[in-house]
UniProtKB/TrEMBL annotation:
Residues 197-300 form the Glycoside hydrolase family 2 immunoglobulin-like beta-sandwich domain. Residues 605-659 form the DUF4982 domain. Residues 672-774 form the Glycoside hydrolase family domain. Residues 96-168 form the Beta-mannosidase-like galactose-binding domain. It comes from the Bacteria. This is Beta-galactosidase. GO terms for molecular function: hydrolase activity, hydrolyzing O-glycosyl compounds. It comes from Geofilum rubicundum JCM 15548.
Length: 779
């Protein structure tokens, strides 16, 4: 698996970091195209002051901060917060951001845009008091031209008002604020339109591939001969081929240049080897380079087959997917890229190869990471059309008719060059009537628009109870390129049998063994997408603030279903022991050999997950026998009389030992052990280390049964970003330096604050030996 060998992804990751860490001076406009991070030095207030859009408004007493920023995650959990169960009982309201900047007088005559990758929500954007536009949907990127309203050589003020006060507005946590990256874009008078490069690979083989490049060029200068150059480079930066095409463009004319290039012996994008290329576009007029930009892409082919499911580069691949919401747990909606990187590693390790963006588009950098680490992506647009859903009274259904087209266009045009995206879903469990003309037309208008903008990907819809909605009988399913259904896995399998020409896929599925067996035994079902990969904020009833849907909890700790799924979907040999928490098989599953009450715990019930042929269990060194892995994918079960000491499972395939797991009885916690995901960081908002904390006894064994309050301190050139323990019913703040452990564990998220040096993470707790770890800072 190439990512885990440290391939070119490392260079691409560092390129992302260096771009956002270099806050280019606005005065540095020598190049024909300048794309500058606009993340630093915003003023913020959680209020709605009158006149805050004006250039002369005084914001001196507002908080100074950098974006991305989610102000809701900084608030307190409260059962009375109007976000209620959907928003995780975190606060809502109105917030303003303002930023002052200057463009040099020499830039006058150039074109200037501002791009927000996400504004949550109901945004109003102003430049020097002029209203640029309103946008309800918080998940789409928004670009406004500033040119006519700028004062070159003088101070300008950008102001953004965000309003999510009407609640409940979502069935899950949305966050609040300028929670994604912001860019300032400066161009000459002849330029590539925003999202104006579309790279496709219509013909692909191991021997050669055709790369088609469509480039939308706008000429606002005088009529001129315009030349577009396309230079294709591989991940090593080597020029693979180049091509140019020219045409006369009149003033204010927009034209799409079309080029086809042939790459010999292409490096194909795949799950195990996610090779990336870059198309460098140059626009020339009369010997002067007017514009240039880079577009990453991958060379691959894929298709769905009604009988055998999904194929990539000619190989039949089962989709082993998870649904994800966009929050990052303790950091809320403003998620540093390193958190997604760590989560993706965990998902890869247990066999996951696909992600559904539930139920909205994610940040650009999220998709970049999917490209680079080798994940398939189902890109989803909306959770609702016109009909409402419970716990989202003020949701997108109020804006669908006015905004669906513009929002869909923004999603498709921004994301269509990502090789990871293999399908687009236009809705999740839509409650509109799909058994009438309006339902048909509403689907078709979205389907047709996507195909006009991007004819390379199929369109689906995550259907809700399709037989009750009659979509399997009334012709609606035949409209879909791929029939997607949520849950009721046997129903989908039967629909595939009854309609052998349908291409089908589970778009949202449970973790049950019954659902897995349907996936395993029906190759016509292209894949399943589990609900969910990781616990998320919201959709929980008080006192819980997040729900137990994930393979991993909110803090990244494992659960029984983590290992059960790995035993089903991973080829890496594994074995894992769990026991029922209480006597005689009562209670939930825990992965320890330390009962909460030794006096009443006598008969232990084990459940063992493995993908090996058989497992032998040893209790304090004595064999309890060997059992074969059941054909029905159920766990291997043992019952025994509990004695303190150890329980060990040895997994064998073809008689050879392939995996071992052992649990030992722990005493009370006496020490703190720290394990950072990264021991070296660069000074960048996106680069963080997740420091995992465990409480162990004097023998170093995890001690799970006492919740201990921990205090976190960062000294040196670093900062504490957030803390968590993954507990769904914890109401402790994430933005503090204290946290109680849950099952002997917690995490701290830390970040560098300088370009060099180091910092220490120190953790203390009453009655515990303190621990510290050093994080170095590099370039």
């Amino acid at each position: 698996m190439k990512y885990f060998k440290g391939f070119a992804f490392t260079a691409l990751w560092l390129m992302v970091l260096s771009f956002w860490s270099c806050e280019t001076k606005v005065e540095d406009l020598a190049d024909s195209r300048v794309v500058q991070s606009f993340n630093k030095d915003w003023r913020f207030v959680q209020d709605d002051p009158e006149g805050a859009e004006g250039a002369r408004f005084s914001d001196s007493d507002w908080r100074m901060l950098d974006v991305p920023h989610d102000w809701s995650i900084e608030g307190e959990f409260n059962r009375d917060n109007p976000t209620a169960r959907g928003g995780g009982y975190l606060p809502a309201g109105i917030g303003w951001y303002r930023k002052s900047f200057t463009l040099p007088k020499s830039a006058e005559g150039r074109k200037v845009w501002i791009n927000f990758d996400g504004l949550m929500a109901n945004s109003d954007v102003y430049i020097n008091g002029h209203h640029l536009g309103h946008r309800p949907y918080g998940y789409v990127d928004i670009t406004y031209e500033l040119t006519e309203h700028l004062q070159f050589g003088k101070e300008n003020v950008m102001a953004v008002r965000l309003d999510n006060s009407k609640q409940p507005a979502s069935r899950w946590y949305t966050g609040a604020g300028i929670y994604r990256n912001v860019k300032l874009i400066v161009k000459e008078d002849t330029y590539v339109d925003n999202n104006g490069v579309f790279v496709t690979t219509p013909q692909v083989s191991e021997e050669s591939a055709v790369v088609n490049v469509k480039t939308d060029v706008v000429n606002t200068g005088v009529a001129s001969e315009v030349m577009v150059k396309s230079l294709v480079k591989n991940a090593d930066g080597q020029l693979v081929l180049a091509d140019s095409v020219s045409r006369q463009l009149e003033q204010n004319e927009k034209y799409t240049f079309d080029q086809s290039l042939q790459v010999e012996s292409p490096r194909l994008w795949s799950l195990d080897s996610p090779e990336m290329y870059v198309n460098e576009t140059e626009v020339w007029v009369n010997g002067e380079k007017k514009d240039h930009l880079s577009t990453p892409f991958g060379i691959r082919s894929f298709h769905f087959d009604a009988a055998t499911g999904f194929h990539l580069n000619g190989e039949n691949i089962r989709l082993k997917g998870v649904c994800l919401h966009h929050d990052g747990g303790a950091v809320g909606a403003a998620v540093p890229l390193a958190i997604w990187e760590e989560r993706f590693k965990q998902l890869k390790e247990i066999g996951i190869n696909a992600i559904r963006t539930a139920h909205n588009p994610f940040a650009t950098e999220f998709l970049d990471l999917c490209d680079q680490m080798g994940f398939f992506v189902m890109n989803e647009t909306f959770d609702t059309w016109r009909a409402s859903k419970n716990n989202a009274d003020h949701g997108y259904q109020h804006h669908f008719d006015d905004w669906w087209e513009e929002d869909t266009r923004a999603i498709v045009l921004r994301d269509r060059n990502h090789p990871s995206i293999f399908i687009i879903s236009v809705g999740n469990e839509i409650r509109d009537n799909l058994n009438n003309e309006q339902g048909f037309e509403t689907y078709k208008m979205q389907h047709n628009l996507i195909h006009r903008l991007d004819g390379t990907r199929p369109v689906t819809l995550a259907l809700f109870r399709p037989n009750q909605a009659h979509v399997y009988q009334n012709g609606f399913a035949e409209l879909m390129d791929v029939v997607g259904q949520n849950y009721r896995e046997n129903e989908l399998a039967q629909a595939s049998i009854d309609n052998p020409d349908w291409k089908v896929m589970g778009t949202e599925n449970g973790h049950t063994r019954q659902a897995f067996l349907v996936w395993r035994d029906n190759p016509s079902i292209a894949g399943h997408f589990l609900w969910t990969g990781i616990d998320y904020l919201g959709e929980a009833d008080w006192p819980e603030v997040s729900h137990d849907y994930g393979l991993f909890d909110r803090a990244g700790f494992t659960k029984p279903r983590t290992w059960e799924r790995m035993s089903w979907w991973s080829e890496t040999p594994m074995v894992r022991i769990y026991r029922r928490e209480h006597h005689l098989g009562q209670g939930g599953l825990v992965d320890d050999w330390t009962p909460t009450d030794f006096d009443t715990y006598d008969e232990a019930h084990l459940e063992i997950y493995t993908n090996a042929d058989e497992v032998e269990v040893f209790h304090n060194g004595e064999s309890l026998g060997t059992k074969k892995r059941p054909e029905d994918a159920s766990p291997i079960r043992f019952r025994l009389t509990f004695q303190p000491g150890s329980i060990e499972a040895v997994a064998r395939t073809n008689g050879e030992e392939v995996a071992v797991h052992e649990l030992k009885t722990a005493k009370g916690p006496s020490q703190i052990v720290l394990s950072p995901t990264k021991t070296s960081l660069v000074n960048n908002w996106d680069d963080v280390s997740i420091v995992r904390v465990k409480l162990v006894d004097e023998e170093g064994i995890l001690s799970p049964n006492l919740a201990k309050k921990l205090t976190f301190e960062v000294t040196g050139n670093g900062e504490l970003v957030a803390v968590d323990n993954g507990a769904r019913d914890s109401h402790e703040s994430f933005v503090t330096n204290e946290r109680r452990t849950a099952r002997g564990q917690a995490i701290a998220i830390v970040r560098a604050t300088a370009d060099e040096g180091s910092f220490q993470v120190n953790v203390t707790g009453e009655g515990l030996t303190p621990a510290s770890v050093e994080i170095t800072i590099g370039q």
